[in-house]
Amino acid sequence: MMAWMNSESFAETVRTGKAVYWSRSRGKLWRKGEESGHAQAVRAIYVDCDADTILLKVEQVGAACHEGYRTCFFREVRPEGLKVVAQRLVDPSQIYGKSSH
Amino acid sequence: MMAWMNSESFAETVRTGKAVYWSRSRGKLWRKGEESGHAQAVRAIYVDCDADTILLKVEQVGAACHEGYRTCFFREVRPEGLKVVAQRLVDPSQIYGKSSH
Questions:
Q1: Which end of chain B is more exposed for a tag (fewer CB within 10 A), N or C?
Q2: How far apart are CA B32 and CA B35, in angstroms?
Q3: What ipTM was estimated for this complex?
Q4: Which strand (E) or helix (H) includes residue B7?
Q5: Helices (H) and strands (E) in chain A, counts
Q6: Comparing C-alpha atoms, which of B62, B52, B53, B6 is closest to residue B29?
Q7: pLDDT digits (tens, 9 = 90+) for B10-33
Q8: In whole angstroms, what is the distance from residue A4 CA to residue A7 CA?
Q9: Contacting residues of B for A25, CB less than 8 Å apart
Q10: Largest separation between any pair of C-alpha atoms in chain B
Q11: pTM of the entire structure?
C-alpha cells in the first residue's frame, strides 16, 4: 500500500512500532487497523536517498487494502486490461462500519 | 525507488517493457538508464486500489539509485539514527557526467 505520513505520524510509528499514517482526506492521524483491526507491526523502516519517501517492512494483520485484499496492488496491467491477481481475503463491507477510506 | 509517471511515460513503459518515468525537475521523460546504463526491464506492472499508484516489478541493471546503491532505500531508521544497510555498487561520480538526478 501507499499512504502519506507527516512528522507526527512518522514519530508515532517509530515510537510504537505500529504503522501510523496521515489521512489527507480526513485531516487526522490514521492508525492503521484502528477501525478494521488490520494493523501493521513495523519490522523495519527505510528512507530513500533524498529522504522524502519511507519504506515500511511490516507484518500485516489481515488485509492491508480497504477492498479486502492483502495488498492494494491486487491488479496487474496486462495487454488485455487490468487483471485481478490476488485473492480477496475479506468482504469490504465487513471491514468498516459507516466510515470509509 | 520511487519516481513519478505521467500518462506518456506510463504508455511508453507498457509499450517498450522498459521503465520510463517523468522527471518533474527536468520537465521531460526520464528513460531510466538512458545516461547511467542502469535500465529496468519491466517484469510486471500493478496498479493500486484507487489507481493512483503504480508498482513496477523490474529486473534492475546495476544500481537503481543515483547514489550508487541497488535500491534508493539503502538506509534504515534505527534508534541510534540512520544506518546504511546496503553495499554501494558503483561510485556515483562514475554514473553520470555533468547531469544529475
A1: C
A2: 8
A3: 0.91
A4: helix B7-16
A5: 2, 6
A6: B6
A7: 999 999 999 999 999 999 999 999
A8: 10
A9: none
A10: 45
A11: 0.92
